[in-house]
Amino acid sequence: MSVLVRSLLEGARGVRNVRALIVACVALSLGPVIAKLAPSSGASAADDALRAGVFGIALPLAAYLSAEAILQGKTLDQAARRIARYGTSGRLAGLGLVLALAAVSIAAALLGSVAALLGAYPAHGSDFYGDLFRSLPIAATAGAAYAGWYALASCFGARGGGRKWLLGLDWVLGASSGVLAAPWPRGHVRNLLGGSPVLELSQAGAFGVLLLGTSLAVLAAIARSHD
Questions:
Q1: Which contiguous run of DSSP H or E holds residue 195?
Q2: In this structure, are residues 79 and 72 in contact, taking their beta carbons and an 8 Å threshold?
Q3: Angle at CA of residue 190, ends 186 and 195, nearest 5°
Q4: Contact indicator for 210, 203 with CB cutoff of 8 Å
Q5: Separate counts of helices (H) and strands (E) for the chain
Q6: Calpha distance 112→108 (Å, rounded)
Q7: Contacts of 224 by beta carbon, 8 Å cutoff, 6+ apart
Q8: In angstroms, how far apart are the furthest CA atoms of the chain?
Q9: Which of 5, 9, 147, 175 could cross-link with 102 by S-S, CB 3.0 to 4.6 Å?
């Protein structure tokens, strides 16, 4: 079995952490709860549920918990070296763990979006399917972005403590629209959802920043894994 496949399987086993799964499920329920509590149904409730519930709280928290579970409270390099034995590539093992994290984060974003929209629309009419069609690509992009950034953050700290810093910095600085928000996924995902942009970027610009930032984060994280 190749080291890449083995690391993917190890990552999949890691997400069976019961506490992480419970907290992640609670977090993902925020979208539909907000949709149900919104004073109106339809597009406005869907916007509130997606921006505040799914992408504002649930996805960053679920991605953080997934990274903790998949890497078992270690740095990316430590987790990769545990898998890469007998001369196999530590960087390939690290890539497999990052791909496992991306798969879980994207799945969480997709499921959270569907649940939020189901809560926002009383009947599955054309508006529901239109919002679903628009939201799912954003969910996949956001899930991949958080996976990449948590992979990079996992390279820092004695046991990957950089993950906690990323969670806090993305929450605080990413909520603004100025230059301090530019590096973090939160503000650019908000832009894709129709919210206030970071540095007046267009939605295409926000997508480009997310794509470039995620790619660089993954490359830097893999580069820090030792063979």
A1: none
A2: yes
A3: 145
A4: no
A5: 11, 0
A6: 6
A7: 76, 77, 155
A8: 60
A9: 147
CA distances from 64 to 51, 120, 150 (A): 18, 26, 7
Say how far apart CA 42 and CA 118 lie, in whole Å. Answer: 10
The predicted pLDDT at position 18 comes to: 52
101-118 pLDDT per residue, tens: 998 899 889 888 888 888
DSSP notation for 163-183: HHHHHHHHHHTTTSSSGGGTT
Locate 165 and state its tokens. Answer: 């810093």
Convert the pLDDT of each residue in 75-89 to its tens digit: 998 888 877 664 567
| Lowest-confidence region among 67-76, 89-98, 102-111 | 89-98
Radius of gyration for the alpha carbons in the chain, expressed in angstroms and rounded = 18
Q: Rounded CA gap, 41 and 118, in Å?
A: 11
- pLDDT tens by residue, 128-154: 788 888 899 999 999 999 999 999 999
Pure H helices in the chain: 3-14, 18-28, 30-37, 43-48, 59-70, 76-83, 90-120, 126-153, 162-172, 185-192, 203-223
Which residue has tokens 């419970």? 22
Q: Tell me how far apart the alpha carbons of residues 84 and 4 are, in angstroms, rounded to a whole number.
A: 9
Instruction: Give the confidence band of 207 by pLDDT, cuts at 50, 70, 90.
Output: very high
- Specify whether the CB–CB gap between 65 and 34 falls below 8 A: no
For the chain, domain boundaries: 3-223
